[in-house]
Specification:
2 domains; mainly alpha; 2% strand; two-stranded antiparallel ribbon
Length: 351
């Protein structure tokens, strides 16, 4: 039968049915939700599972009374800052332990043991060391990501195939050339997938740590005003919002992964090599991300100029929305500008 592929074990989803199946799944969940929460005496009380319409209406309340946009930007800056610090810590240490026998013999077992450290158990230590505000929260998040990335980098180094090493050695490459042309790009290509997986874990850490102090953020809203008021509809609205942000962030990471490591998305057919054809949905989504990225870059350049020259009288949006985490936004966009400049330079030199 034509529909038999729907029930095959590990069967591949046909691209033309992708959006249909996705929408069907979402509608099914919404229908079950409506059945459970509708009526004067719903099957599940509203104190446990609110009606979908109440959850939608809660966004207006969050926007008007709880500075929703500012709390989103606060959490997102914390997320990016944690990634930046974790990568700056884990990449050099990971390559040292993974490549140099002296450091591997001395520290690999310690690194492996760190994976079993319950992160919530060290929260008090970070409060003692850094206080209860941004510095503590960003370092706590970075440490949580670092614990995952460091042993992963070592594992990825071990997974580098010998055929590449043999090739560069045959060509007479030095140790530095071997690191630069084989180990570093091979590890980064695989590590990008690990970072995508870590997105969900990082948001878990953020929600936990933003419960401390009163600097705002989605975790603060979730544990603070919404919980104190018993507003289950607000809690569900925030949880859905966090999932949406996570999905969007994952798509952005995937888009960047395709730009930096296109070789990962080349598949070989039985007869010839060819690029994997993306679905129309993914093509549209990638185009939206690309256009949004350029619009966001232009918007940032205007707002960053306003921080210096004060175009908008008596108001600095970047400082207002990001506060003392603004350096993360500057760092991120500087890296974007460097990347775009490097690509432009390559195009010029090729000509």
């Amino acid at each position: 039968m034509k529909s038999s592929w729907l029930f095959e074990l590990r069967g591949e989803i046909k691209s033309r049915y992708f959006i249909l199946l996705l929408v069907s799944g979402l509608l099914f969940i919404l229908l079950v939700w409506l059945v459970l929460t509708s009526g004067e005496t719903p099957l599940v009380p509203s104190g446990i599972l609110p009606h979908p319409l109440k959850v939608v209406m809660a966004y207006a309340d969050l926007w008007n009374n709880n500075e929703l946009l500012r709390n989103i930007t606060t959490s997102y800056a914390l997320n990016l800052g944690g990634y930046v610090k974790a990568l700056l810590w884990s990449l050099p240490l990971g390559f040292l332990v993974g490549l140099i026998p002296l450091f591997r013999g001395s520290f690999q077992h310690i690194v492996n043991a760190l994976r079993y450290l319950p992160l919530t158990a060290v929260t008090s230590l970070f409060i003692v060391w850094f206080g209860i505000y941004t510095e503590m929260k960003m370092n706590f998040l970075a440490f949580g990501i670092f614990l995952y990335l460091l042993p992963t980098i070592i594992q990825r180094i071990d997974e580098v195939e010998d055929v590449y090493l043999t090739t560069v050695y045959t060509l007479g490459a030095s140790k530095w050339q071997t690191f630069r042309t084989v180990y570093f790009p091979a590890v980064l290509a695989k590590l990008s997938d690990d970072i995508r997986v870590l997105t969900a874990i990082s948001w878990t850490y953020i929600i936990v740590i933003e419960n401390i102090g009163s600097e705002g953020g989605l975790g603060f809203l979730l544990h603070g005003p919404s919980a104190r008021q018993g507003r289950v509809d607000k809690m569900f609205a925030l949880l859905i919002l966090i999932m949406i942000i996570g999905v969007v962030q994952d798509r952005v990471f995937l888009y960047l992964d395709k730009k930096f490591f296109p070789h990962k998305y080349q598949l070989k057919d039985k007869n010839k090599a060819e690029h994997k054809q993306a679905t129309l949905f993914h093509q549209i989504l990638d185009f939206i991300i690309m256009v949004s990225g350029y619009i966001l870059l232009g918007f940032y350049l205007f707002l960053a100029s306003n921080e210096v020259f004060g175009f908008i009288e008596n108001f600095s949006p970047l400082s207002y929305f990001f506060g003392d985490r603004l350096w993360v936004i500057h760092f991120f966009f500087v890296m974007v500008l460097v990347f775009l400049g490097y690509n432009f330079y390559k195009k010029l030199t090729n000509k």
